[in-house]
Amino acid sequence: MEAHRGAADRGSGVPIGSRTRFGLASVTKMFTATALLSLLPDPLRDLDTPVVDLLPARLRPVELHPGVAVRHLLTHTSGVADYFEEETATEDWVAEFAALWSERPVYRVTRPTDFLPLFADLPPHGPPGSRYRYSNAGYILLGLVLEQLTGTDYRQAVAERVFAPAGMRETGFPAADEILPDLATGHLRPRAPGQPWRSNVFAVPAVGGPDGGAFATAADLDRFLTAYAEGRVLAPDLVAGALRPAARVDGETAMGHGVYLLGEGTTRSFGAVGADPGVEAIIRRYPGPGVNTVILANVNDCAREIDALVREAVTGGAV
Asked: CA 256, 261, 262: angle at the middle one, nearest 5?
């Protein structure tokens, strides 16, 4: 079943349709993790390989703990300081995230290396493995590792290792200045009554990278979840390992290898969640009934409420 409401672009009045490609924000991290895991066991030896053995000094934080391994980056337990600390963000996080790009214009942030000046000189929060602490910077480092080990750029590596085997033909990393069909505009609410809605073009990097910013249709995300679950993107043993809890996020959520694990038993699901200014995305796979759910929005403050209703419908009210 598929349903869509609202405008893909408020200025032109183009409605959202089945071919509309939405920004995915941090759902992209699951693609990064999947591409990285596909390198096991060669050219990546194992997940306990220290990052200092994979990245030269110029491509890592100055004070990177020598014990930080790939596993810690995947599970947000590295202790690496982030360029946007979500734990300390306020309710006005949309404006706070947009403010990052006032000194460093978004059009200058197009490659994983462009993010390094935002966090490379920051001291770590603590030793690796101590606790879960969400880190966009950790996934930037994973993207750099992916580039080093594949010898190609991040976006090409993900396209070849994730999008192609999953059959995701409408998924990619369009730049903000590319005029392409079926792209949803990220909408920011008016600053005050009577003022216009705005696009998020100055509030997010100009092109997506390892920590967020891919675009996809709902149908492509459905294909990805199915291919992932069936072992067609990663080998089944790697999928099984990715879906084992590695860190506790909160009372009902755990972190696997780049995958969020929610609930237990018949209500169990896995997937990813993302939010940027003007973007929200939640994807889940419910292994019990074999159901995928995809919620995409080009405005903030709606996806989680819809996800709660969908979860209740899928699990028969058992959540």
From this structure: 160
Of the candidates 235, 228, 35, 62, which has an alpha carbon nearest to the alpha carbon of residue 144?
Answer: 35
* Virtual torsion, Cα 221, 42, 140, 216, nearest 10 deg: -10
This prediction has a pTM of 0.97
In the structure encoding, which two tokens stand for residue 214, read together? 């891919």
Q: Is 164 helix (H, G, I), strand (E, B) or coil?
A: helix
Residue 19: which residues within 8 A CB-CB, separation 6 or more?
170, 182, 217
Q: What is the pLDDT of residue 279?
A: 98
Distances in Å between the Cα of 82 and the Cα atoms of 19, 24, 119 are 34, 20, 6
Supply φ then ψ for residue 198, to 5 degrees.
-130, 160
Give the Cα separation of 87 and 132 in Å (integer): 11
Q: Is the pLDDT of residue 318 over 70?
A: no
Fill in the DSSP letter of residue 31.
Answer: H
Residues in the chain: 319
- Structure confidence by residue, pLDDT tens digits, 5-38: 999 999 999 999 999 999 999 999 999 999 999 9
CA pair distance 186, 297, nearest whole angstrom: 8
Residues 135 and 76 sit within 8 Å (Cβ to Cβ): yes
Q: How far is CA 29 from CA 14, 63, 120, 165, in A?
A: 29, 24, 20, 17
Residue 271 pairs in a beta bridge with 260, 284
Q: What is the per-residue pLDDT across 149-164, written as a single tens digit (0 to 9) for each?
A: 999 999 999 999 999 9
Are 51 and 110 in contact, with CB atoms under 8 Å apart? no
- Whether the CA torsion 224, 97, 208, 191 is positive or negative: it is positive
Q: Report the SS3 class of residue 258.
A: coil
Position 79 pLDDT exceeds 80: yes
